[in-house]
Structure to design on (427 residues):
């Protein structure tokens, strides 16, 4: 698609009223994919992997971090190319569908992973997370097409809020399956929870594909999409020094989202190993996290449109710093549940504010391509953090690992202050 046609579509989108139905259908994808997020990445499968799959290994934390990091490496390498191809006209919805199916099938496959099946447990996690994370490149890029610029913060926050509602529904649905913990007689129920995650993702993702149009024209099937993607990627890299403000934000994002992703990936393992919470207590902890995340995404989404995306994001990152400090010193469950409430507020606000700030500063005619870089920096950062935490945790202790994550957060926060809130002009 030519730059002229893309600019025309952007102007046309600004003139059209926001369709609540399309926004809701778009947001339901957040509702869908959080089932994978909470049951596979944060609550159920991390503990199942540590206690059952890798029970015989002294490096279970390192293995978990390595599996996650490998998946993010693949996504990081794919993201800019996928974004460039979709921006050319290959169709965001087509690729979103491919990666959604990959995540759903691999997640369902985890049902068949049992004790000591470390290789299969890692391979399926890698495939599922590639599908989940790569799909977000195209999902995020729909935001500028379903609403106007002045509502980015509200709609982005609304999407995350609907997602957190989905995670609550998923957690309450799966809670009875974990009542027997990880005792041998209850392992089948735990594995069934992985099928629940796959089913939720598949069913609630369907409205986006049915009701949200892809404004980009489909390129001819004979077109070499990979060649186009690499050519556009090379051109964007060549032009990247011209978009210094976007580069500053992406560098900041690279650092602070690394810390946030790492906290999420290891939170249940920290709660289990360091604080000795039961699986039921961990689920209730994440129910608190997801409930407060709804508040954070909605309230901070409105604040982002009133106070500005950068100020709102700064505030949420300061909350994350406080969370890390409290978590480092806490030794009791009550304090940790307070940490969970604050983490939910910060999680909803930081994710929503980051996405809306990115939407506000990228060139209008390169939105999908730059969201590819946005995804690239987020995913590339997640290669380092979980691996770092896993190695420090396995060879020292989890509190030392938390301290390292706190340093990353402060670095990202300081770099964010150099970002100017203005849209880059296309070259």
């Amino acid at each position: 698609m030519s730059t002229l046609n893309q600019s025309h579509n952007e102007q046309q989108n600004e003139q059209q009223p926001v369709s609540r139905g399309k926004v809701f259908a778009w947001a339901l994808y957040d509702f869908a994919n959080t089932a994978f997020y909470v049951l596979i990445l944060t609550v159920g499968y991390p503990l199942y992997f540590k206690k059952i799959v890798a029970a015989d290994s002294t490096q279970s934390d390192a293995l978990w971090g390595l599996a996650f990091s490998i998946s993010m490496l693949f996504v990081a390498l794919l993201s800019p190319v996928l974004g460039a191809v979709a921006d050319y006209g290959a169709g965001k919805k087509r690729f979103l569908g491919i990666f959604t199916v990959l995540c759903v099938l691999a997640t369902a496959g985890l049902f068949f992973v049992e004790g000591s099946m470390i290789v299969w447990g890692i391979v399926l996690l890698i495939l599922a997370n590639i599908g989940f994370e790569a799909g977000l490149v195209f999902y995020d890029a729909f935001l500028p097409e379903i609403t106007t610029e002045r509502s980015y913060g509200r709609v982005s926050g609304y999407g995350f809020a609907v997602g957190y509602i989905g995670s609550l529904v998923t957690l309450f649905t799966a809670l009875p399956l974990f009542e027997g913990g990880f005792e041998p007689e209850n392992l089948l129920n735990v594995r069934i929870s992985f099928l629940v995650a796959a089913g939720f993702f598949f069913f609630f993702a369907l409205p986006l594909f049915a009701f949200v149009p892809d404004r980009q024209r489909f390129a001819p099937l004979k077109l070499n999409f990979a060649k186009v993607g690499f050519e556009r990627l090379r051109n964007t890299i060549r032009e990247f020094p011209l978009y210094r403000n976007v580069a500053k934000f992406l560098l900041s994002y690279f650092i602070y989202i690394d810390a946030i992703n790492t906290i999420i990936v290891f939170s249940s393992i920290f709660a289990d190993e360091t604080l000795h919470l039961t699986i039921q207590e961990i689920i209730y902890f994440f129910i608190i996290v997801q409930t407060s995340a709804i508040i954070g995404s909605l309230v901070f989404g409105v604040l982002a449109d009133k106070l500005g995306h950068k100020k709102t994001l700064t505030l949420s990152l300061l909350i994350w710093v406080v969370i890390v400090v409290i978590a480092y010193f806490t030794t009791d469950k009550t304090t940790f549940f307070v940490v969970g409430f604050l983490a939910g507020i910060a999680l909803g606000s930081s994710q929503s504010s980051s996405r809306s700030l990115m939407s506000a500063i990228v060139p209008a005619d390169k939105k999908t391509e730059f969201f590819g870089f946005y995804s690239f920096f987020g995913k590339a950062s997640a290669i380092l953090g979980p691996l770092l935490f896993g190695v420090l945790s396995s060879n020292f202790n989890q509190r030392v690992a938390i301290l390292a994550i706190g340093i990353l957060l402060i670095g990202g926060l300081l770099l964010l202050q150099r970002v100017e809130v203005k849209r880059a002009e296309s070259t």
